[in-house]
Amino acid sequence: MGAKDADVDARVRTLGPVLGIETSCDETAAAVVDAGGIRSNVVSSQVPIHRLYGGVVPEIASRHHLELVLPVIDQALAQAQVSLHELAGVAVTNGPGLIGALLVGLAAAKAIAFAADLPLVGVHHLAGHVYANFLAQRELRPPVVCLIVSGGHTELVLLEAHGEFRLLGRTRDDAAGEAFDKIARVLGLPYPGGPALEKLAETGNPHAVPLPRAMMGAEGGLDFSFSGLKTAGLNVLQSAEKPTPADFAASFQQAVVDVCVAKAMKAVESTGVDRLLLAGGVAANRKLRDEMSAACRKQGVELYTPPSSLCTDNAAMIAAAGRYRLARGQTDGWDLDADPNLPLYHAISTVL
Ligand code: KG4
Ligand code: ZN
User: What's the structural domain count of the chain?
Assistant: First the structure.
């Protein structure tokens, strides 16, 4: 850890409460985080609504965010027993995500920050997922290798210093969560598929169905590919001799976990950074957490995982990441825009 990071850590510890707002997909969320940790963390999930359609419908998501965002913010402030003038700033996800959904949270954040004369900070959604770990693990410091596995992203990044990310590898097609969701849908499981597939897998044999693990050779570097696994899985499900749903779910989950563990260990090895954190919705998966933990123990790597409740989308992680931006003296202007493809890295650079 550089001297600069130590200063940032010290400043975060003295910073007042920050309101976080997250509306990038199908959760309307607001939270208050202060130096002592989470004061409130309100998530109003639209999952039951989108479940009717088997996935998130962007226009419906935006409309529900509009209805929910102010009540959710009020609730977060009330539960934290914090008034607007006590806040040190307002942090909001400004990308990546669904443009209409992002704009609702951003407009609310700007209005509140402007009216209460507070600093505004935009937060990258994936930086939020990474910083969920800093809420739970007080001793965590950069540099740390981060495996981000969510519905929209599967990326290995190196957090070199606070707020400074370097890309190590990423999926070339589907994200891990997306693969879970698509396969779960074919199995007739409800949206979102990851948790339902994990439950079904509990009683299955993870070695019952042979499924591919893509890009595991040297040529794959630290990149991922899950579309071949998805297609192979769909072929098995359409074949004459179908496995039991539980065996299939367990085998599919095992294939995703095997790739994630192998790639994360390779990233640790190639960077020489022996600290690894998990982030994003799929990091809630028990099998992934257990197998990653076993691999890390074997290789002497320190593993950090957020509590399951902070793996999926929430605003406490946005407030947490926002606090580090504020502590680094960074704020945004009223022209802050939502960007559905907001990049996490200053410059895209692959180390392998
Ligand atoms: O991070 P997240 O809440 O939203 C995005 O930023 O995408 O991740 C949602 C994804 C979904 O694909 C969901 O199926 C997956 O995370 N997920 C899981 C589990 N819990 C959520 N996947 C596997 N096992 C789980 N327990
Ligand atoms: Zn997310």
Answer: 2
Q: What range does the domain containing 10 cover?
A: 3-133+311-348
CA–centroid distance, 240 to ligand 2, in Å, is 37
Pick the ligand that lies closest to the CA of residue 56.
1
Instruction: Based on the fold, state whether residues 231 and 293 are members of the same structural domain.
Output: yes
Q: What residues pack around ion ligand 2 (CB closer than 5 A)?
A: 150, 313
Same domain, 154 and 110: no
CATH number of the domain enclosing 343: 3.30.420.40
| Residue among 148, 149, 150, 252 whose CB has most ligand 1 atoms within 8 A, to mutate | 150
Question: pLDDT per residue over 292-345, tens digit each?
Answer: 999 999 999 999 999 999 999 999 999 999 999 999 999 999 999 999 999 998
Q: What global pTM score does this model have?
A: 0.96
Peptide bond just before 48 cis, omega within 30 deg: no
pLDDT at position 2, please?
61
The answer on pLDDT for 3 being more than 70 is no
Say which DSSP state 281 is in.
Answer: G
Classify the C-alpha dihedral 220-235-284-73 as positive or negative: positive
- 55 and 73 both lie in a single domain: yes
For residue 8, how many other CB atoms are within 10 A of its CB? Answer: 24
Q: What is the pLDDT of residues 20-42, one digit of tens each?
A: 999 999 999 999 999 999 999 99
Coil vs helix vs strand at 121: strand
